[in-house]
Amino acid sequence: MKRAALLFALLGALTAPAAASAHPLGNFTVNRFSGIELSGGRAYVKYVLDMAEIPAFQERQKITDERAYEAGLAERIGRGLRLRVGGQAIALTPVVHELAFPPGMAGLRTLRFEAVYASPAITGDATGIDFADTNFRDRIGWKEVVLGADRGARVSSSTVPATSISEELLAYPKDLLSSPLEVTQARASVTPGDGNGAAPTLLSRQQLASRVAVRDTGDGGFASLIARDRLSLGFVLLSLLVAMFWGAAHAFSPGHGKAIVAGRLATQFCSV
């Protein structure tokens, strides 16, 4: 029965016309974001999971109690997060989490899950941090890791940026949809601060239920010109004049003058 339901869902997703409600990265993707935040003397990880229509449909078949599923998902994802501080493995404990099912295409739902995990207190001077997200390793999709610090903690160097280019999987950059990020690890040199710091905040359940979006990153230079739907007559005429000028100039560049002379001599020789 579940296989038949999955087949109908798959057919519906594949045959439905393209619409704004379709997931921008494709119906089969499982997209992940890990935001590591060194705040005071603790490390926090904000984890975001964005499942497109088909994997979300498969997950929903497992749910009998939504709250129990949410808590279980938080535990399962936590086990797939690897954090090492100064070479020592550190346990991450779920602090808070939220789950929602935003609308997708063909009447299907997507799945969005957010959670915050906390480490024990980190003491001492400058140290190294290694992080890896091993969840959903066999699934295609966007994979992003960022790392930042506040409340007295400092980052000396990092292999990942401090801010998310996908706005934590809420607005995917348009120019990266065909080649999404694939970053699941991070390494940094940090100096802890004091105290517990402040844990990252989550979106409300109502905000989570909103569709993800595509952020237009914009084009510059020549790309922005050829991407225009309509060009003015003046612009077209100016472009033709510029093209004619540079074409003539190119003909007089080294090598081209010889070809012109040779062509002229050949014409005169043949006419004799």
Summary, kept brief:
This protein is of the alpha+beta class and 272 residues long. Helices cover 30% and strands 28% of the residues. It is flat, with a radius of gyration of 28 Å.
Name some characteristics of this structure.
single chain, 272 residues, alpha+beta, 2 domains, 5-stranded mixed β-sheet, 5-stranded antiparallel β-sheet, 7 helices, 28% strand
Task: Note down, in words, how this protein is organized.
This protein has 7 helices and 12 strands. The chain is an alpha+beta fold. The protein folds into 2 domains: 2-215, no CATH class; 221-271, no CATH class. A 5-stranded mixed β-sheet has the order 5-6-2-1-8. Helix 1 packs antiparallel against helix 2 (53-60). The chain is flat. It starts with a helix and ends with a helix.
Number of strands: 12
How many whole angstroms does the radius of gyration measure? 28 Å
Strand order of the largest sheet: 5-6-2-1-8
Number of domains: 2
Backbone structural class? alpha+beta
- Taken in chain order, the helices and strands follow as HEEHHEEEEEEEEEHEHHH
Shape: flat
Strand content: 25-35%
The count of helical stretches stands at 7
What's the pLDDT, averaged over the residues?
A: 82
Oligomer: single chain
